[in-house]
Amino acid sequence: MRLTSAEFDRLADRAFLRIAPRFRKRLENVLIVVEQEPPRPGLLGLYHGRPMTQRSVFDLAPQHDTITIYQGPHERMSRTEAELEKNVTETLWHEIAHYFGMNERQVRTIERRRELQARRRSRRPASPPADPLL
User: Fold this and answer.
1) Please, are residues 132 and 20 in contact by the beta-carbon 8 Å criterion?
2) Left, alpha or beta for 42 (phi > 0: left; psi -120 to 50: alpha)?
């Protein structure tokens, strides 16, 4: 799967809109950028900043936090555009969770829990409820 930079940016915009509004509304001074390749192998995204849980009213001027999404690895792991958008959405959610102060272990635990819930829902004949984290 290979998109132009502009196409991937539009896909990332759609992925961002799939994040629950209650989380999107609380993002302050966060830049979301797309880069072609990560600085080291294995990265899909990267949060750089000071998590909300570590901020203080005594902080001087607010600094921009940055979430970087890496286009190349996402394209290589995705077979369709729908799968690519799903993968980018999951990476965005993962990095946003870091912004809100979750460490890697906490984020991975929630992701595993969501995967188990999705598998259980897929076994049921009724339509599943909306994902509470996305």
Assistant:
1) yes
2) left
